[in-house]
């Protein structure tokens, strides 16, 4: 078993780190304060090929693997978790659904502009009454000739404030429950789509996260992904892969907090010496780094399993469960190490602590991850 990255992956990692430090970090605090994602940064992410990392060059992507994508997720999330989730939802959810279930024609029409840097995507599954229980979706898509008419409301749709392409899930036969759900690819410009204001949140405040209403939206049948009734499978497959990205985001948030704490403890003096000289500080940071390294290896394991077309879903659930717990624990420790300054918005560890919480919730709560893991164990 080889835990080393390839030379190509190391080079990519360095490029991702440089991009994060030079393009994202300088504006991350301002984006968080304004709660608006910088559209100039979106353009830079697109130009740098960040939105198409694990997708084939055949469709305009970078032709890299999932592991390389997790390296990007970690590096950007070290400095800004809002950028991490923007990248994750586009790549892991929207694009993956089209890539894995779309026809060749759909890939050329919808996937190519998403991965070549032309468009941004989002993923509409969650509803006001359907969160962890995705089978509770009430949005309907009723057949009307060669079209479907979609009516319903989605909430917490990340990227929806500026996304061009929406992958949306709706019931085409509500009598069948989850088996009556189907997936569609919609354009933002379609009549009947109304994107609400950004939802005010504790963390990832710069990310665009809105309620989206669909009122008599006419969608050609050619925009259905897969077959009628496959929507639930498509959504769950997308989310399984997405959890690898959230695991990587969690690692990035935690590692970024450690990096900031390390700089602080080497400068801050108390009782006549810098606080990194105290054994309590050393032991706390040692514990944090050990847990982050363990979480990172779990992410890499899940990513490698997906690259190898193995059963990665339980591994993805594990890396998200553990990684999100580590992110929350480590950011709390880092805030504590900075003392009163850690609680001030001047220092990025408080933002990391706020951002970390959501990793235990979105793309499957920690409780849902335990259900998946225990199910795979056949408990």
TrEMBL record:
The keyword Transmembrane does not apply. Residues 122-217 form the Acyl-CoA oxidase/dehydrogenase middle domain. Residues 7-117 form the Acyl-CoA dehydrogenase/oxidase N-terminal domain. GO terms for molecular function: acyl-CoA dehydrogenase activity; flavin adenine dinucleotide binding. Gene3D superfamilies: Acyl-CoA dehydrogenase/oxidase, N-terminal domain, Butyryl-CoA Dehydrogenase, subunit A, domain 2, Butyryl-CoA Dehydrogenase, subunit A, domain 3. InterPro entries: Acyl-CoA_DH_CS, Acyl-CoA_Oxase/DH_mid-dom, Acyl-CoA_Oxase/DH_mid-dom_sf, AcylCo_DH-like_C, AcylCo_DH/oxidase_C, AcylCoA_DH/ox_N, AcylCoA_DH/ox_N_sf, AcylCoA_DH/oxidase_NM_dom_sf. Its cofactor is FAD. Its EC number is 1.3.99.-. Keywords: FAD, Flavoprotein, Oxidoreductase. Residues 229-376 form the Acyl-CoA dehydrogenase/oxidase C-terminal domain. The keyword Transmembrane helix does not apply. It is an enzyme of class 1 (oxidoreductase). PROSITE patterns: ACYL_COA_DH_1 (PS00072), ACYL_COA_DH_2 (PS00073). It holds the Pfam family Acyl-CoA_dh_M. Belongs to the acyl-CoA dehydrogenase family. This is Acyl-CoA dehydrogenase.
């Amino acid at each position: 078993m080889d835990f080393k990255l390839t030379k190509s992956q190391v080079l990519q990692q360095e490029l991702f780190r440089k991009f994060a430090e030079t393009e994202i970090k300088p504006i991350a605090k301002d984006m968080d304060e304004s709660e608006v994602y910088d559209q100039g940064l979106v353009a830079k992410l697109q130009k740098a090929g960040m939105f198409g990392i694990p997708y084939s060059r055949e469709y305009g992507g970078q032709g890299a693997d999932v592991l390389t994508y997790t390296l990007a997720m970690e590096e950007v999330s070290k400095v800004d978790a809002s950028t991490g989730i923007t990248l994750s939802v586009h790549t892991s959810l929207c694009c993956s659904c089209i890539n894995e279930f779309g026809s060749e024609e759909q890939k050329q029409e919808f996937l190519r502009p998403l991965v070549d840097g032309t468009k941004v995507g989002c993923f509409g599954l969650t509803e006001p009454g359907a969160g962890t229980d995705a089978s509770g979706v009430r949005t309907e898509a009723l057949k009307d000739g060669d079209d479907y008419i979609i009516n319903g409301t989605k909430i917490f749709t990340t990227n929806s404030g500026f996304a061009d392409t929406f992958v949306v899930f709706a019931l085409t036969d509500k009598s069948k429950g989850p088996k009556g759900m189907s997936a569609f690819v919609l354009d933002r410009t379609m009549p009947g789509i109304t994107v609400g204001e950004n939802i005010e949140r504790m963390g990832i405040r710069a990310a665009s996260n809105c309620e989206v209403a669909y009122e008599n939206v006419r969608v050609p049948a050619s925009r259905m992904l897969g077959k009628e009734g496959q929507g639930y499978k498509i959504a769950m497959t997308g989310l399984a892969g997405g959890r690898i990205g959230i695991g990587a985001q969690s690692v990035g948030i935690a590692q970024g907090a450690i990096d900031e704490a390390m700089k602080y403890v080497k400068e801050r003096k108390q009782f006549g010496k810098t606080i990194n000289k105290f054994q309590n500080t050393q032991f706390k940071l040692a514990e944090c780094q050990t847990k982050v390294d363990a979480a990172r290896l779990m992410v890499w394991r899940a990513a490698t399993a997906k690259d190898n077309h193995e059963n990665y879903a339980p591994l993805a659930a594990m890396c998200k469960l553990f990684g999100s717990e580590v992110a929350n624990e480590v950011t709390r420790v880092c805030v504590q190490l900075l003392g009163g300054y850690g609680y001030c918005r001047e220092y990025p560890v408080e933002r990391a602590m706020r951002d970390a919480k959501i990793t235990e919730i979105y793309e499957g709560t920690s409780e849902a991850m335990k259900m998946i893991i225990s199910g795979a164990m056949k408990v």
